[in-house]
Structure formats: C-alpha cells, structure tokens
Amino acid sequence: RVITQNNPRIISTEHEINANEKVMVFINCNPEDAKTTLQIKDGWKISSNLYGDKTQNNDVIIKANDALVLMLKK
After folding, report:
1. Residue 58 and residue 2: Cα distance in Å, rounded?
2. Mean pLDDT value across the chain
3. Cα–Cα distance between 38 and 5 in angstroms, integer?
C-alpha cells in the first residue's frame, strides 16, 4: 500500500490508475467522526483531494458515515 493508517474504524482501498498514479479511498462507516494519521510511502505524494476534507500534515478527520478520496502521484 502507498498509504497506511492505524484507525481500525476506517476502511481503505487502493486503486491503480497507472504505475505513477493511484486513488485511495478511506471510508468511515461509523456514526462518529474518525481521526487518523496517514503514513505515505517514500516517493509518493498526495496530488489532490477528490472528495472529503483536505488533509493537514497527513492528519485527517473523516466525518461520520463519510469518505475521503485522494489522488496520489509518484
């Protein structure tokens, strides 16, 4: 995985666009906001937020029953 996080309440999926681009989806399936810190693999960066609140210093809060979708580039 290009991004990992340690909150068990958040589900994540990784989708390869090509060798240099991926989309990561983080889903909070709980009725409360969930906070986590994203650990990004060396050589990768978040290029844009496609949905959800923008990250700050790799710390994110995903609203209750909502998601965060990020575009990543090498």
Report:
1. 13
2. 94
3. 5
